[in-house]
Fold:
Amino acid sequence: MKLTIKSLLLLAALIATTGINATNTESSEPLPNDTTEVREHKIGNWIITRESITSTPDEDETTSETKVSVDIRYKHDFTPHFPVFYIGLNAFTPDRFATQFADIPLNSTKSWEWGSYLFQESLPFGKSQHVGLTTALGFGRAMYKMDNTRYFYTDADRMTHFGNPDEYDVTWFRYWTLKLPLALTFETEVKGDDLFFSVGPELEYRFSGASKGRVGNNKKEVIANDLNLNPLGVNLMAQFGYDGFSLIGKLSLIELFRKPDLTSPYSTSLYPATFGIAINF
Structure:
């Protein structure tokens, strides 16, 4: 709870106007002919209650008593929990919501995506602030290590294929992304830390895609950098976390390449998927 000078001055003024100090002592029960007035003032999380009791024991005498109590009521602070940094293993699926990975020469244990989300905002629902919408602006870099030294390239008809496996000793494929997620977030506090779950769509702009390779210890070279990527992607993104750490998963709903080769043994109709861990705000 943050106390400002303005809050303290206002609290002091309210107590001073009552003529008595704020105490925790119990007052006597009001008489039947007593008049009771209760007023509440809110200062942030402070609720200041002023109770005035006016007694008239007889027609010639009127007495009054004022009591002040200060109650601090906790209010949950709804916070977006997009990762300040995440890293995960990459894979491809052959279709949206596929239950298996694509049958392509990919070394998934050496294929990674990392990134970060900045400029986070939230819109909580209701006074409890346990449910709301969250959004952010992020970026990421995806890298796929290819098995059998195959690689992606685009022909004159703008179709994406797999290249000859005998030309390079090591090959990989990478691209960059800008991300704009919108998540429905559920959160609560457990032992003073946030326990949260979020799910929702994520818009993704893909750019700077390239296939790279290396022969022996020679310098790496660009094999192809015009791969006809689908520039706009949409991911289904979910997170589950506690106390600054979370599990994160993403599944693309739009295939990676605009014109995939569907005739080869290794189809390039591919949907990126990522599963990893994250450090959250």
User: Anything to note?
Assistant: The helical segments are 5-18. Residues 5-72 form one domain.
